[in-house]
Structure formats: C-alpha cells, structure tokens
Amino acid sequence: MAGEIAFGHPRRVIRRSPGIRLVPPQLTATWLICAAFSCGVAFSTVERSFSAETTAGRRLGAAAVLGVVAVVQFMVSGLHRRALLQGPADLVGGELARRSHSARLLLGVGASVALWTSVIALPVQQFSEVSVLALVGLPILALAFASNAWPSGASGRRTTWLWAAAGVALAGLGLATGRSVWQQTPGAAAPATLAGPFQYALPDPGTGTWTLRGEGRQPQEVGQAGTRLSGEPFVLSGDGLHLVYVDADTRRLVQQDLSGPGARRDLTGPLTGRPVPEVVLSQDGRYVSVGPEVIDNRTGARTRLPGVGRVLGFGPDTVVATTGRRALAGSPDTELLTIGYDGTVRTRAPFDPTLEVAVSPDARALVVLTEEEVLTMDPRTAEIRGHAELGVPEQHGTPDALAWARDGRLLIKIDEGGEKEFHLVDPATGEASRVRDLPSNLDGAVFGRIQ
Questions:
Q1: pTM of the full structure
Q2: How far is CA 308 from CA 33, 234, 300, 319, in A?
Q3: Residues 282-313, buried b or exposed e (16+ Cβ, 10 A)?
Q4: Which domain holds residue 172?
C-alpha cells in the first residue's frame, strides 16, 4: 500500500478495464472468500453495537476489517483500471509485471489480515478444529498464490455478476456466523440460567471464570465474569441468592438474582479506564453498596453516603461504615459510622482501620478477630461488649472472616502450618467447630449460604 501511494504513477483512470488480468483466478477466489466472510463477521459486530454494549476493542476490530477490505479492493481495482502509457512492448510488459506483483501482494496479505482481524471483533476466541484450519489454511493458500509469478494477460470472459453473487453469499454466511457467536457469548447470557441458593463461588485463575457450588447442587459456571485475582469484585450474598460481578462483555458492574430466571440489573456504566469500586451485599441481597453509594434493589433508590470510605455491612435499617478504607498497622484511627438508609449519620466513634471485622446480619454487633480472641463490639460506640478465647488450633496470623452461617456463627479461615482450615465460631463463647464438607483449596473463594 505504501509503495503504491508513495511512488508516482500515471493517475489517469479509464472507465472500463483495458481487459487485463493481473492476478490468478485462484487468488481472486481466495481473496473473495476471506474478504466477504470477514466483512460479514464485522457487520454482525456493527449490528450488535446498536442494541447492546460492545467493547471498544471489538468495535475497533470491526472497523479495521472493513477498512482493510475497502482499501485493498480500491487499490487493486485502480491497478486494473489505470491507463497504460504507450511505448515499446518491453516497457509495457514491465509495467504490467509490476502491477501484477503489487496486486498479488495486496490480495494475498490483505486476505490474511482481514481474516485474522475479524477474530478481534468476536466476543470469544475459542474455535473448533475446522475454524482453526480455515484461519490458518486460507491465509497460507492466499500467500502461496500471491508469491507465484503470474503472466498478465487478457481477462477473457467477464463474470463480474458471478463474483458479486458469491461475495454476497459469503458475507451473509459471515454475518450469520457472527450472530451465532454473539448469541453464545458466556459473559452476558450464562447468569440468567442460574438458580440458587449457592454455598460458595470458586475462581479459575486460568480462564477468569467462576463456578458456583451449592449444597447438593450441580456446579454452575458464570462465564468470564471479573475475578478478584485481577482486582475486580465478585460478591455472593449471605443467603446465596444474589450475585454481583463485572460482566466481561460490557465491563459493567451487574447484580443477578439467583432465585429464578430473569432479574438482572446494571449497577454501573462501563468501567473501562476507571477503578473498580468496592462492593458489599446485604445478607438478603436487598442492599448493595458500590463504593459510598447504596442501592435499594426493591425500589431502585440510590443514596450516596456522606464521608464514607468503606461500607462494612447492612442491617434492616442501618448501614455500618467507616470514614477511611482498610489500612496497615500504624495507620491513624478513622471513624466508625452508623447511617440510616436516607443518608443520615446517626453515630460516630473512633475506630482502628487495621482490625479484621465482620458486621452481624442484623448490624447490631461488630465481631473483631485476633490471633487468640474473638471480641464483640457495639457499632454505635465502638465499645467492647465482650471477648472470648478463640477455640481453634494454633495458627499463623489473624483468621479471615468469610461469611455468616444461618445459625449465627461466623465462618473463618485459619492457616495451620501452611494448611487452610475452615471453622464456624460462636462470637459469644469463642467455641469453634471445623467445617469438613468444604474443600481445602478454596483460595480466593467467596461465600454465601453456609449450613
């Protein structure tokens, strides 16, 4: 392309082709297959962009395909239609050979670029053996035809209408293929078929998918949702019936009701280029906080909490939060707040942001874990109501508070000599019992309904 644009050539274009063929018919057919099919795939992305959120990368891929095909076709047509200067036969032959070389390179490389770029426009890049064979074989075939010298000659019988019909048919096939792939996109469609309650969700670091598991239920995969491993939230409510995740297709923060088909709500716009906010779900899934904003999923009301840096939990009529985010040891104290759902701050108290805490399901108590004790704190005053010895084996570091069981006990994870164990702890007495029906390899898991 650069050579044809940069070097000066006679620019007079004639209306009808002088009747020469610069490329072999096999290369023309291969280019037609690759170009028309790629355009069909690109048009399927363009069509979807009018009715659903489509990422910038896929839009760019579709635009690149259409641009490459248009420019290559325009330049090759120009090579055929550019007037030949009169002169000796050897000079005319050299001009035709140069044009043939340019046309063959444009079609051969253009076919490869168009076909491979169309893959970017698709929502998934997982292909069958036949698709892989086509993606590899067709470009190799085009480049093989392009690399062989071709004696330019008369074009013979004109079959323009046949080539046009074949191109339309192949573009229609590409459009149908693109539509079918979009309809099978796991990121948006999979959650609508889920049904809870679920006990926990486990991430797969290799694929970026989450698998929901429940008591006596078959594991169900949430396709390509955002993972905690990359700093994106994935939250399961305490009752195991509500899910918040980052949709991999739209890049929106989405809440899904798992109690039946349907109910799905976009909590944010596309998060591309913006930090992902911290998310907390209430025990029953009615309330969700996105950063300092609280959303009531029954009414759709949104309330921004003043001066809040981190939401700790929800009660029937109270939000427990702090003015600062979680911090490392030695950080200055922040304030512990209780706030009404109308945004009114009810109480303030000094609070240590380094503590490992869990808000009870009714928000009437704040449970604090240390290596040796479990303490109960009043969220209104931050005063200690009681403390008890933590009845778990000796462990390394502070236990992690994970979720509340239905009987009021707290699920914690401890590290005993490098082996992870899960225990249910009674905050009032410190008594603990090991949970033996959970796998030991639940690194990064999020929990919902326990026992």
A1: 0.58
A2: 58, 21, 21, 11
A3: bbebbbbbbbbbbbebeeeeebebeebbbbbb
A4: 2-184
